[in-house]
């Protein structure tokens, strides 16, 4: 296809504003243009691929569109991950296209992720077509939202298209706007190959599938290509596009978007943002700005039942096949036995991985307190990265510690602003900006990431009844008065509960932790001291008194079935207990103890 007839775009939106529904509509509308047979074929192809278990990324799709002017265009829509944890991936994939549809729910207005994503699009020099979605709903306020887009984002919204992705209103106008308002890509067919690696995922039949945007040159089946970040060579065995089913084609030229397969075993070998060129007569300079995404939040994952360790290892390896940003290494804990120290892009990424392990792979897990990566400056002038509070060196050798900070943007209705400010203040935040857009406030805070990884999202949601939206980016490291707090149960340190805290907040955290543990640890036949300590100094203490009674004693002899039920329950509960010295701690105790309120 010649460049003038290609349009490449992405859709940026806040979660739930209708990105997927709109993408489906665009595919449907253009699929039906070619008539019924075409549509049936297309669906057939999809069914076959489904049966074979091949992943279809329906949101990355090549659409053939004949515009009202009679010209035939190829429209390439690429999907971008929606969540803040994947901001780097978003920023890379934005550079693979020239324009964006900015979808805003006309009943809601601009939200934090609308802003974060549209700023990425602006940074990538995109032309932007604003779309007001859900105009079929009575609560739709297109005029107000247009104004808000102009006030808050600062782009012209007078030409915004009124759309209902549900009923199909405005879909044709959207396709015309893509053709007429978004620029055609540029590229040189005769230059050495430069293909940007936009995305990649693991497929159990085909191995790794790599989505590329050709910047210059031509990519053909059979080519030997090189990943410029690490020099690895691959033989391209398949090239194609998504319609949305996979369709092989002979070559991909400048401006085009499609996939390649090359018997690549793991997504780890395909870094988003990397440049792919030919092994021979390749480009000598990679596309600018490549940096592999690095995990910023770490935690330990341990099987509740030590016998599940091998299963956990298998599952983690499988998961890592398809998730290059997830890292892991084996860890042993005195308290929890064998497990893994895992690294994530953020808290949501952590939750997604933990959920999948528990649900898809059916393993009960203990998750230790999430921790950020600290920079520990030693007295001898060296610096160590600390991924696990348990590895904290002796303070006498430490000069100072630095922690990662973030810039957080929160949009919230006026009436909850006070609570949000208090929450941010409580989490050692420094206010940087406060502006209004209609009845919503936008606050920007500089916060320690450490204070956000615990339960910031949850707290924010609860104090604003779900009306706040939140987004953040890492800004850098700063020194602060940070210490390691240990928890001792019956005088034995429980390594899985140790955490890094700010010195001023240590007492409060320590007290909250021991009080909670006192409620969570079942009483034993002996007295159990529960302490929080910094170094050798105890900063909080509770004592769990001894128990003498049999649990079944409260059944007053009589009811035998009830007695047995209780005993069964007790047995089931036992399985989820971990032994710490002489003390048994239920798994829930860890989970609850690690939440704060
Ligand atoms: P994520 O996939 O979660 O990021 O959300 P999304 O932005 O892709 O939104 P999605 O397309 O899943 O739509 C969110 C919800 O809004 C769904 O329940 C849709 O059915 C609904 N929806 C989308 N567009 C419209 C619309 O034009 N009108 C109405 N009434 N509902 C819509």
Keywords for this structure?
single chain; about 600 residues; alpha+beta; eight-stranded antiparallel β-sheet; GTP binding; cell membrane
Descriptive account of the structure:
The structure is a single chain. With 597 residues, the protein is an alpha+beta fold. The strands form seven sheets. The chain has an eight-stranded antiparallel beta sheet with strand order 11-10-16-7-8-15-12-13. A six-stranded mixed beta sheet has the order 2-3-1-4-5-6, sandwiched between helices. The protein contains 14 helices and 34 strands. Helices cover 27% and strands 34% of the residues. Helix 1 (19-33) packs across helix 2, helix 3 crosses helix 4 (112-123) and helix 12 (503-520) runs antiparallel to helix 14. It is globular, with a radius of gyration of 28 Å. Residues 13, 15-21, 82, 133-134, 136-137, 164-166 line the site of guanosine-5'-triphosphate (GTP).
Give the assembly state of these chains.
single chain
Q: Which structural class matches the secondary elements?
A: alpha+beta
What is the count of helical runs?
14
For the secondary structure, the number of strands is 34
Form type: globular
Mean pLDDT: 84
Query: Ligands in the structure?
Result: guanosine-5'-triphosphate
Task: From the alpha carbons, calculate the radius of gyration and give it in angstroms.
Answer: 28 Å
Largest sheet: 8 strands, antiparallel
* Unreliable segments of 5+ consecutive residues: 32-41, 48-58
* Beta content: 25-35%
Task: Name the helicity range.
Answer: 25-40%
Query: Ends: how far apart?
Result: 58 Å
């Amino acid at each position: 296809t010649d460049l003038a007839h290609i349009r490449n775009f992405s859709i940026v939106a806040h979660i739930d504003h209708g990105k997927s529904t709109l993408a489906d509509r665009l595919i449907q509308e253009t699929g039906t243009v070619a008539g019924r047979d075409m549509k049936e074929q297309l669906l057939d192809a999809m069914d076959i691929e489904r049966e074979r278990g091949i992943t279809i990324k329906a949101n990355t799709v090549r659409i053939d569109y004949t515009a009202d002017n009679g010209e035939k265009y190829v429209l390439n829509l690429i999907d971008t991950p929606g969540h803040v944890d994947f901001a780097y991936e978003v920023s890379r994939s934005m550079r693979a296209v020239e324009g964006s549809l900015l979808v805003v729910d006309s009943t809601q207005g601009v939200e934090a992720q609308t802003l974060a994503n549209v700023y990425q699009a602006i940074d990538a020099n995109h032309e932007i077509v604003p779309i007001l979605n859900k105009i079929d709903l009575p609560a739709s306020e297109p005029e107000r939202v247009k104004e808000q887009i102009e006030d808050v984002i600062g782009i012209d919204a007078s030409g915004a298209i009124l759309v209902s992705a549900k009923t199909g209103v405005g879909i044709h106008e959207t396709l015309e706007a893509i053709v007429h308002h978004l620029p055609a890509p540029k590229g040189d067919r005769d230059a050495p190959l430069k293909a940007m690696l936009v995305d990649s995922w693991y497929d159990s039949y085909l191995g790794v599938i790599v989505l590329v945007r050709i910047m210059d040159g031509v990519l053909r089946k059979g080519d030997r290509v090189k990943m410029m970040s690490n020099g690895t060579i691959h033989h391209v065995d398949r090239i194609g596009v998504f319609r949305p089913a996979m369709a092989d084609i002979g070559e991909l030229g400048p401006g085009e978007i499609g996939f390649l397969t090359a018997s690549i075993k793991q997504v780890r070998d395909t870094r988003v943002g990397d440049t792919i060129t030919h092994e021979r007569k390749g480009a000598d300079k990679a596309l600018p700005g490549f940096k592999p995404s690095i995990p910023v939040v770490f935690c330990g994952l341990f099987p509740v039942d030590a016998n599940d360790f091998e299963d956990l290892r298998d599952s983690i390896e499988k998961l890592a096949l398809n998730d290059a940003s997830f890292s892991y290494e084996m860890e042993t804990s005195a308290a929890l036995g064998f497990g893994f120290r895992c690294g994530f892009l953020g808290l949501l990424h952590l939750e997604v991985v933990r959920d999948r392990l528990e649900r898809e792979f059916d393993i009960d897990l203990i998750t230790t307190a999430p921790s950020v990566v600290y920079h520990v400056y030693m007295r001898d002038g060296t610096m160590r990265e600390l991924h696990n509070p348990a590895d904290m060196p002796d303070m006498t050798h430490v000069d100072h510690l630095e922690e990662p900070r973030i810039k957080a943007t929160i949009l919230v209705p006026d009436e909850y602003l006070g609570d949000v400010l208090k929450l941010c203040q409580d989490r050692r935040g420094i206010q940087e900006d406060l502006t209004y857009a209609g009845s919503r406030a936008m606050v920007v805070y500089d916060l320690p990431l450490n204070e956000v990884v615990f339960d910031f999202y949850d707290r924010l949601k609860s104090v604003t009844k779900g009306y706040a939206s939140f987004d953040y980016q890492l800004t850098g490291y700063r020194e602060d008065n940070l210490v390691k707090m240990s928890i001792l149960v019956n005088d034995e340190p429980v390594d899985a509960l140790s955490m890094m805290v700010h010195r001023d907040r240590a007492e409060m955290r320590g007290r909250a932790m021991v009080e909670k543990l006192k409620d969570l640890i079942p009483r034993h036949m002996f007295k159990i001291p529960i302490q929080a300590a910094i170094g050798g100094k105890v900063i909080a203490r509770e004592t769990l008194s001894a128990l003498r009674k049999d649990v079944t004693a409260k059944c007053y002899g009589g009811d035998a079935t009830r007695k047995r039920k209780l005993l069964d329950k007790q047995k089931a509960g036992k399985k989820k207990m971990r032994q710490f010295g002489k003390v048994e701690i239920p798994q829930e105790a860890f989970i609850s103890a690690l939440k704060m309120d």
